[in-house]
Amino acid sequence: MQFKSMVISNVEVSPAYFRMRMTAPPAIVEAIPGQFVMVRVRDAIDPLLRRPFGIFDLGTFPTEYTDCGRQTFCEILYKVVGKGTEMLSSLHHGDHLDILAPLGKGFAVGDPADEKILVGGGVGLAPLYYLAKELAKNSRVRLFAGGRNKEDILCITEFERLGVETYVSTDDGTLGASGLVTEVLEKHLAEDTGRKSLFACGPFPMLKAVAGIAGRHDLECQVSLEAYMACGVGACLGCVIKGKNHSDQTPDFRCVCKDGPVFFYQDLKWD
Ligand SMILES: Cc1cc2nc3c(=O)[nH]c(=O)nc-3n(C[C@H](O)[C@H](O)[C@H](O)COP(=O)(O)OP(=O)(O)OC[C@H]3O[C@@H](n4cnc5c(N)ncnc54)[C@H](O)[C@@H]3O)c2cc1C
Ligand code: FES
User: Fold this and answer.
1) Using a 6 Å cutoff on CB, does residue 79 contact ligand 1?
2) What residues does FAD bind to (predicted)?
3) Residue 73 lies in a domain
């Protein structure tokens, strides 16, 4: 869908991190956790390209926003890193955005009997909240959240309100355990050997480490990747990554936007 959306709120939840709620058509509630939106940050030539963001949350308002006639909303959680996100951060209630959504392939929820382990690095927590909301309906969910410092640890109380058990770590030890989120995860897995599946989103080195852990512990594992995107729908091939069968002789490329952003870790080449 392509639609005009009205900004409801745009709140700085931690330095440089914003949570934006905007109106969306009712069909948005069919979006699968892990799918994403492409946002045109303003009606001008610059910046030309839409910016991709994971769906942080979806829902319905108690009352209708009469100026746009919509009762459903979509939220994104984003970090200000450049021009587009800087512009987004300056928007207020009543401003409008042009959105393409929902895009890409989301997470497969798997067997409800499996415990679900979510692993988020920094703003990689963004698509994991909507996922946690869905998973917590039928499964036990734990979240391992990591960041460089306490300011990178976002919206943890929201996860806890869903009944999710949270394990926080920071590289500098300013919040939770000191060290990498993957170290905390590995320690937990060594102590608890029950059936579980992993869902991860964050920087590439973290995802690579999580994929390695999944391999060593023989766990099902899905990762949500980021890539530079122009079209978001599989037309420009600007977002390709190497698939598991890739070699110089037999190219195997996957579009992060259309074949992903969520992949089973075994489907990718991690070199
Ligand atoms: C499927 C998907 C989902 C995403 N979800 C989120 C989300 O939920 N929250 C969030 O904060 N960000 C998310 N991102 C990243 C976000 O799209 C970029 O941070 C944003 O486009 C940057 O725009 P900008 O104009 O502010 O920065 P630019 O001026 O374009 O770039 C500023 C800096 O950010 C880096 N950068 C820009 N785009 C990307 C990218 N796609 N991947 C990695 N680095 C990039 C550039 O190298 C540069 O260093 C997602 C990306 C993808 C592909
Ligand atoms: S962004 Fe164009 S093909 Fe993926």
Assistant:
1) yes
2) 84-85
3) yes
